[in-house]
Design goal:
It is a multi-pass membrane protein. Keywords: Cell membrane, Membrane, Transmembrane, Transmembrane helix. It holds the Pfam family MFS_1. About 75% of the residues lie in helices and about 0% in strands. It is mainly α and about 450 residues long. The protein folds into two domains: about 190 residues, MFS general substrate transporter like domains (Growth Hormone, Chain: A, Up-down Bundle); about 200 residues, Up-down Bundle (Growth Hormone, Chain: A). The longest helix has about 35 residues. The chain starts with a helix and ends in a 21-residue tail after the last helix. The C terminus is likely disordered.
Length: about 450
């Protein structure tokens, strides 16, 4: 029987512990950043909402534009070095923002340039993180590793919700940005200490960036389960962004008591994500993508409850369910990606996953306001919940989604004999195509995260 003791034994592995600590601290820095940046910018003399919008747009656009390039970089170079560079760039960006705000020299173009550097850093970090986990832990411990990394990240997000606002109030936005910079710097140092053996890259001459992108696209599109779920999430994230970013806060302000009520909903979601980690440590489904896609069906529940006028406690409960489902999906998705995608192209495929899943999110934010004016926020929320339900059920029609099988996980139920050395067969090995599952030309992906 799988036990928590065996799960936690992975933390005795020095390499995984360093990755776990680096990821947890980096996410805490990211959780501090939005509140610190928003209130730091709005606290500047003469700042307006347009000023904040300019800085935030400068941060988000490079993250989208450079995501695919980040995948190429992470597949070409040692991924722990790429992650170190990404966290280091984030540290430079936030130290620069902090210095400008603390000294009072805050030209908007320079603020935007520093924010853009942070966006580029995130575009580099995400694909490298997706690819580094199989280089750190044995193949039969991937799901445990992803669940524990999720536990650290989700705990950091909850802590960030609590601590970031208090830090801004107590010491100001500029110093809070400096705290974010320190966290990113510490994460970079921890990743640098990993000292991984360089992973084997594709043999042959070095290709151009475009050739690498085409190779990653072929890996992505050849796996039906991958592109189907990414297409599902492109619509799901659009609806969720509209509901979470605009419509939900509107209803909370009008009917549920304002910011405190919406904070309760967000806290419920965060608690659900932590609970989902413990379920992810227990579950070993034979059809992980099928179960993961089924779990997306109820993720629109809090939006439906808000839309029909349910009491706050019911909406919070729905948010807990949503958090559990999204976290379980994320662990199953990441583990399947790491098992099924060749290591040499994993970061590029992950970048296509992220780009495809997130590309319509800004459109959801853009449309939410006009739709709320035209129909009212409650009917719009019901529409978002319905859209999530429809695309989730549609994804279940895919044979690739229903048919992909996980390899035998019995080995993961055995107590590990000890830390495997980097480069040993247990670390370098990759399970073959599972019996009964799609072959190398099948499909895989998921970014929900």
């Amino acid at each position: 029987m799988h036990s928590f003791r065996r799960d936690l034994a992975l933390l005795r592995d020095r390499r995984f512990t360093l990755l776990f600590a680096a990821r947890t601290i980096s996410v805490l820095g990211s959780s501090f950043a939005p509140v610190a940046l928003a209130f730091g910018v709005l606290g500047l003399p003469g700042a307006t909402p347009r000023t904040l919008s300019t800085v935030l747009t400068a941060e988000s656009l490079p993250m989208v534009v450079f995501m695919l390039v980040g995948g190429v970089i992470a597949d070409r170079f040692p991924r722990h070095r790429v992650m170190m560079a990404g966290d280091g760039l984030n540290a430079v960006a936030f130290f620069s923002l902090a210095a400008m705000m603390l000294t009072g020299w805050t030209p908007v173009p320079v603020l935007a340039a520093a924010a853009a550097l942070s966006g580029m850093a995130m575009a580099v970090l995400f694909p490298a993180l997706a690819g580094i986990v199989p280089e750190v832990v044995p193949a039969d411990r991937l799901q445990t590793a992803n669940a524990l990394l999720g536990l650290g990240a989700n705990s950091s997000r909850v802590a960030g919700l609590v601590l970031s606002g208090a830090t801004v109030v107590l010491i100001g936005g500029g110093w809070a940005l400096a705290v974010s910079g320190v966290m990113f710097a510490v994460a970079a140092l921890l990743v640098a200490a990993l000292r991984l053996t360089p992973a084997e890259r594709a043999a042959g001459e070095r290709h151009s960036v475009l050739a690498d992108l085409r190779g990653g696209w072929r890996e992505f599109i050849s796996r039906q389960w991958l592109w189907v779920v990414v297409a599902q999430f492109s619509v799901l994230v659009m609806a969720a962004q509209a509901a979470h970013g605009v419509l939900g806060p509107l209803v909370a302000k009008e009917s549920l008591g304002g910011a405190a009520a919406w904070s309760a909903v967000l806290t419920g979601e965060a608690v659900g994500m932590i609970l989902g980690v413990f379920l992810a440590l227990r579950l070993r489904p034979r059809r992980p993508i099928l179960l993961g896609t089924v779990l997306t069906v109820p993720t629109g529940l809090p939006y439906l409850l808000l839309g029909v006028g349910a009491p706050l406690w019911a909406v919070v409960a729905g948010a807990v369910v949503m958090g559990i489902c999204f976290d379980l999906f994320g662990v199953l998705w990441n583990t399947t990606m790491q098992r099924e995608i060749p290591p040499a192209s994993l970061s590029r495929v992950s970048s296509y996953d992220a780009l495809g899943s997130l590309m319509f999110g800004p459109l959801g934010l853009l449309l939410a306001g006009p739709v709320a004016i035209a129909t009212g926020p409650r009917p719009a929320l019901v529409g978002c919940a319905g859209l999530i339900l429809v695309v989730s059920l549609a994804a279940l029609l895919s044979p690739g989604v229903r048919g992909l099988r996980a390899p035998d996980t019995a080995a993961e139920d055995r107590e590990p004999a000890g830390d495997a050395e980097p480069g040993s067969p247990v670390r370098a090995g990759r399970p073959g195509t599972p019996a009964g599952g799609p072959g190398p030309a099948a499909d895989d992906l998921e970014p929900a995260g």
